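Side project, low priority. Logging it here so it doesn't get lost.
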Amino acid sequence: MPSKTANICTPPSRVLLATDLADLKHILPVAIAHALKCKAELKLVHVLPDVNTPDVDPTLLVFADPEVVRHYAETVLENAAREARSAGVNCGWVARPGHVVPTIREIVKEWNPDRILVGSQGPQKFQLGILGSVAEAIFREIDVPVLAIGPEFQPNPHSASQKARILFATALDRASRTITRSVVEFAKAHDANLTLLHVMPVVAKAHPSTSRARAYAEQMFQEILAEIGEKDLRPTCVIEFGQVVETIHRVAKSGRFDLIVLGVVSGAGFRREIMPGTAYGVLCGAPCPVM
């Protein structure tokens, strides 16, 4: 299976939207716009609770008839697919019972999408629903780039008329070199402006070694860019002090970025020191989509 970094450089031809149905109002317009921009096919996927599994929510057994649940899901999905088709997107859907992540992995293997979209309506649901433990498993176990739409996302009305702005938060370690190359190629493919952001601990700001640490970070930026050897696109490099999540949010909002990119290593998903706290925090408060 190709790596996630290799996949992001090519616009997707198939986009899979994993939905719990409640988030469709929030995420469907983004999915439609994304599919139209990439001229991609869209498939909506909802995993129905399997009443035969031992860990199913007991309330479903008491209050919900499986056939009623299925019928409701199919109706909502068809209405959403019809909305997408009326906008010009080739869109289908599937509702299948089972455990969420294994079922999504199964559908990914069958349909072979180039991108997965997940979303959330609010911080509480964000932690407990699709963008919770399920999202972490998707990031780690499914080797397809994931575009996540958090509860703070607000569409930019001017995004279509201006050059897109991408913010890549990087740890500046050895793995960052390969990842940065792919992000640069991604920015070029989308004719976007790219900013590389490295966040240093706030405690380091007043430390005697701060100037040396900052100089080292600047040197790392230059080495990474020199290795890439890219002349057509010269990213802006920014070094900030603060808490990682809050700083990424602040920079993303003040710079009116259209996309935040977080790094992945090989097929393993988000880097271990980023997952789960930092990535979830970034997703929860991001003003734009997060890949």
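Brief comment: The longest strand covers residues 41-48.
Revisit when time allows.
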